[in-house]
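Risk register update: the risk that structure generation would not scale has been downgraded. Supporting records follow, first protein first.
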Amino acid sequence: MHIEGKGHSETRTAASHVREVAQKGYRVRKFYGDGALDTAEMFDTLHRTGTEPVIKIRKNA
């Protein structure tokens, strides 16, 4: 993630980290995040890796 808005989004970076950990044989039981991570990509990744999402849903969702 880049501080000036360049590079990958926060969601893409977090999803990538969860996938990498799962591919190495670790299990993430729960994933906590704020409304910025309330995206289909994040929920799909968590579902595929068997991780329980604990993500605050955005008010305008």
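Supporting record for the second protein:
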Amino acid sequence: MDVVHTQVTATGAVHNGGILLRFPRRLLMATAAAGAVAVLASTVPAGAVTIPAGDPKVLMAGGSDTTTFVVQALGEAYQASSLNTNKDRIVNVPPLHNIAKLSNAAAAAIPANLWLANARQAWPSGAVVPGDADCLTTRVYGGEGSYDANGNNSYSDSGDRRFTTVEVDADNNGTAGEAAVPGERVQLGAVAPNGSGSGRSFSQDFTNNPVGCVDMVRSSSAPGSGDRPAYDSWGFALDAIGWVYFPGNTHGVTALTQAQLNQMYTCSATDGSKPQISTWGQLSGNLADVTPIKAYRVQLGSGTGDDVARSLMGLTGNSQVGLNCTNPTALFPTVQEHDCLAVSEVDKPDAVCFYGYGRYRIQSRALEPDKRNGARFGAFAVGANTPLRPSGSTIKEGTGRYAGTRIVYTLIPKGPGNGVTTPMPSYANSLAFTGVIPANGVDINGDSDKTDPGEVTGTGSAQPGFACDGGLSKKIIRTFGLVPFGLGSTDPTNADYGQSYCRRNVYSLGS
């Protein structure tokens, strides 16, 4: 990997500018309305969270496609609210964005990666994460500066380049690129993590992302058991995933079971050439219908993809899609999560794809580009239960819920060594946005004090952060198609966290 360093002085061509993000008008109106209402946040029956005073922090969030838009709206509202006592800024980096021209061309030239090159078109051009005292380097996600030589969306192969570094004179003292001055080094063309799993890997890569550079991870799926000690996992809403079919489908199948979807996406141990269920007639019982099912799958690295595999197919994860199949890439074309535009017009009458309920809802209301391609939710059940479709009434914590209901999270990294080696300096600030400061404070590294960077002593009572206090945040969560939690125990194992509208380290819903 080559990193190019170019010094740019005050007389050079690089100037202090921003990146234009283009969103649909109704999305801009919705987020502007959320920000306007935030001015009234003092009416919410919750006080500002007490965190250590200091310079305002830049809190970077990246990862999941699913919660990108709701976290954007929550972040803007929090910044404008009186609850943001430290004047921190939330920089929500989209999972996809414009990348270097040659890299995108290389991806588009590979048939199996064309979906990714096309999916980028529906996302903003990029994002800028300014350097601060915790993460000194400014990062420009998107545009030129990186290079993916073979178009495989990995930037660690021979000939690849993760970014280009330029040096600027941020403090205007005549010297550019001072290592200890925030913003004097700028990464151009950085590439964001695409999906929950990618976001978790990104946040734990302390070689390329030093402590303090990734403050929060958007995650639409619960972290696996091996990842859980590295985070505080804050479930802030409910969503659901479901299978969809398209106009022109005349096969008479509008409900599927987990067992059927499992067999549609796995091959037998004795025949890897086709899935165990490969025709619509095998689903409908009309054996004269031998039309092949055009079965699409969600991209690897996606939390939604993992949830589809686990909840809808009964597999252990997205990597098991195509189990026992000799050529799963050819059998199951890839789509970006919540984006079925890659399903061809020829395939649509016979296709199966997958969607999250929240994103389906906001696309139907033009709060983001409509990528549904005419898709409609089918009903789903596990075992002999009654098949249900996801809806505002079937997505819930209690019994009788839709079987594809899931929790969506903001994960707060603790730092290297699960926080023991180096506590995350922005930890308490992130809790003030999405989390709860427990009554007796936070000791990240377990050294019996609460004075290390990112730690907080507590006030004797639990303090819900902005996204967990049940005020304006509930309205924003509903606006963006998700279902808020009700008021309840924040952490069933630790009464110190009191009650809130979030759930801490709860990885599944009860029966």
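The two ends are 49 Å apart (CA to CA). On this basis the risk owner (M.S.) recommends closing the item.
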